[in-house]
Amino acid sequence: MHIARLVVMSAICCFIFLTAGNAAAQSPGLTEHTSGPLIELAADFRAFRSPLFRPRTWRPTHRVEGIPDYARVKREQIDGLREFRARLNAIDPARLSVHEQVDYLLLRSEMDDVYFEQHILREIDTNPSYYVEQAVDRVAAELRTAVPYSESKARAIIAAFDETGPILKQARDNLILNEAAPELAEMALRHLENIRAKYEAGVALFEPHFPRQQRATLRSSAARAAHELENYRNWVQENIGQMQGTANVGAKNMQWYFERVNFVPWSLEDLLAIGEHEKNRFLMSIEIEETKNQGLPELTMPTTDEWIEWFRLTYLQTKYWLKERELISFHDYIGESFIVEGTWQEPFGGIGNRPGLLGFTTEPKPENAKRLFVVPEEHWFTNTYWERTMRLDPITDYQHSDWPGHYFEAEVTSRNPCPIRAIHRDTGFSQGWAHYWEEFFMDMGYPFLRGPRTRELTYNFLLLRAVRVPMDIMLSEGELSVDEAVQYQIDRVPTMEEHISRAEVDMYVRWPYQATSYIIGKKQIEQMLGETIMKNDFTINWREFHDALLEYGQIAPALVRYELLGKDDQVRQFWDDVDTP
């Protein structure tokens, strides 16, 4: 296995924020980051950490070239982690500034995440679906570029197809059958259903964009890959009866992960109570909106061309509405989020919440922009839960995923002058931030493109976030099976259907807290907002408050609160010497 080394960031300056006062009064200033050992440790650890696993707490800084030796990677990650823990433990956090103490905890959480993936999740040993994702995603990653494909890019796509067999052979060698999880095997079987037909249809889409002299090689490589996947599906089907492991991580490991990796300050009982409270509040809000809107015409589904136009209008309206109300600062490096018509071909759009979406554009993505793809209106996918609602009015998700949600926040975070924080990713902050803006837009009177009925749709999305909290906890504890968790959401969220619910649960079963983080991160941001208003004599400068949240990086909200407001009551519980669950 050949892994490119991380290029260490040369900038060593980093924000250190005052720990007293409030966001409106504070003015974060650039200063020299004094902890060279922390920066060096972070660079070395991230170069060591394998990008072959889900990047739950970091933005991968390198990629794997060639066919990985998965068993070797597992051993290297387990053995190497001990050295990095020793280096971290050699640093005395009591001698660090508040900012550096937070950086210390961030690195500890990333190391704990590696422990979790190798000792608890054990994807290489126990997850038959992991190898399917590895094989398919390597092809999908190579396809995402402008067409026509150059000869070198065509060779890379063909090479990715050719890696399928060696990857799946390792699955047969590495999986410990009596410890593997049958629910994850069933997930693999679903991904591989009709796989040959899907690969043939994919080649029909790719081939016209290939250099003519490489098209025959593409067809033969893809056919071999499909054959290998079919054989693997048969092998999984033959051996699923021997699999006795569990897909869930269990209550003890889940609680440890919540506390050590995501710095959640509240107990599981607290989280369940918060989720139940929010669920009831959003159910009430949906009924209120429907009562208010009686007599208004139902929203109709637009054509794809109309939706593309509406999406553009939503970008412009959102940008200038935020700007005119001085709700957040703007940066030249954050450009338009836009959509263009694409196509659907599973599984080459990637295995995930919107699998199958692809685009073959002749122009590269414009600088400082985010491009999305959309299928024609007659496509079956347009009637699934997320897609149907977003087409009725783009703002139902735009403030969450684009401005000022994930796209906006990620662009700011990636430019944080602290090399530790520019790479770190926390789902509690990311999802909490995006979820916070959904309700904020309604409370602030955002002029919805399609009128007040959009509020009903947005509250439906908010309801789903609340329903996810008990679903996530019960799924991770093992009280709900994967199938039961899928049905749990369908039964509690109007218009939810199987395709989307299953795609979500397939992800959440291997990523505890991700589903819970939307509500809990939002409540932590609201806590900081309330405390800031109180400190500032019952006033708030919205722009300064929102800017301050982003300037600390995408770190756990409890750690943001420690720096922003100087409150250590939540952070104190995270300082302990427990290395493992």
Please, could you describe this protein's structure?
This protein has 581 residues and is mainly α. Among the domains are: 2-125, no CATH class; 126-242, no CATH class. It is built from 23 helices and eight strands. It has helices at 36-48, 70-89, 98-121, 123-126, 128-143, 151-162, 164-174, 182-191, 195-206, 215-239, 251-260, 268-292, 304-324, 385-392, 395-401, 406-414, 427-443, 453-477, 482-492, 498-508, 517-535, 542-551, 557-565; strands spanning 2-3, 13-16, 29-32, 64-65, 337-341, 343-344, 357-358, 370-374. It has a two-stranded antiparallel ribbon. Strands 2-3 form a two-stranded antiparallel sheet. Helix 5 (128-143) packs parallel to helix 8, helix 9 (195-206) packs antiparallel against helix 10 (215-239) and helix 18 packs antiparallel against helix 19 (482-492).
> Helix fraction?
55-70%
Strand content: under 5%
Q: Main sheet, how many strands, which sense, barrel?
A: 2 strands, antiparallel
As a whole number of angstroms, the C-alpha radius of gyration is 24 Å
Describe the strand arrangement of the main beta sheet, using strand numbers. Answer: 1-4
Q: Can you tell me the overall shape? A: globular
Label the structural class.
mainly alpha
Report the oligomer.
Answer: single chain
Taking pLDDT < 50 over at least 5 consecutive residues as the criterion, the unreliable ranges are 1-32
